[in-house]
Amino acid sequence: MREGMKTLWETMASNSINNPKCSICGKDKPKVKVKHPFKDEMTEVVAACECEIKEIEEFKKLQKMRERKRQIERILKMSSELENIREFTFDNYKVRPGNEVVINEVKKAVDNFENNNGMGLFIFGESGNGKTHATAAGGNELIKRGYSVIFLTEKDLLSRLKATNNYNNHETFSDVMGAAIGADLLIWDDFLSSTRLTGEEKDWIFQIINGRERAKRPIWYTSNLTPEEFQSKEIETVLDPKGRTWWRILNNTIPIFNRATNYRKEQVMKRVRGL
Hints:
Blueprint (H helix, E strand, L loop, with lengths): L1 H17 L12 E5 L6 E5 L3 H28 L22 H12 L8 E6 L5 H14 L4 E5 H10 L9 H10 L2 E5 L9 H17 L3 E5 L3 H4 L2 H4 L7 H8 L1 E6 L4 H9 L4
Parallel strand pairs: 3-6, 3-7, 4-5, 5-6
Antiparallel strand pairs: 1-2
Helix pairs in contact: 3-4, 6-7
């Protein structure tokens, strides 16, 4: 080890005599005085040129960006397979009476995402009134801006966590739970679509909510709850007997009621003959 250090030191000392040029700008490399590792004296050695340091920093930055891109793509691949979800944008969102506040709040959440401090959204209302489209449009916009976003329906999330118990399953528990907690944004679609949750499922839900809260990562929930259900005592205790999880959710989100009616139902009824 000592011989190796001597060789390195001799090389540095030799460079200081030869006045090596920077391979980028062609100028003489700067020299600095450092303490000799084996002698009580200062010696002049060659240091890296500023442009070489800048190139190294740029390379590190590029590597970091590439790793970030890989992370975004890896998390996105774990999203639920929702029909046309990648095509949902703010431009093709159908603004109708009652849903204006929803799309405006989602846009604000996107623009203020960097400083959200873990504050998410809880959008509830009738099925088919544009909740999923609004949150997916916001998520797709954030992906364009370099954030990692995962779209998960509650049914898909719980079934995939349960499936990790199977030996031949291609996903591990850590894969699914890690993506749900680690993504910059989790869009949790159809939250509380099932009020008959097992104790294990309730524990998984708590782990995700707690993990994201501790990391100050927001969750955007969509739910088909009615205003009456949203304010009921029954909904408070779905996830735990004392309602702690429910109030933790609401403490970390902006609740928004989507007053719009079911668009899909309206479109179907327009095609009905004889009414």
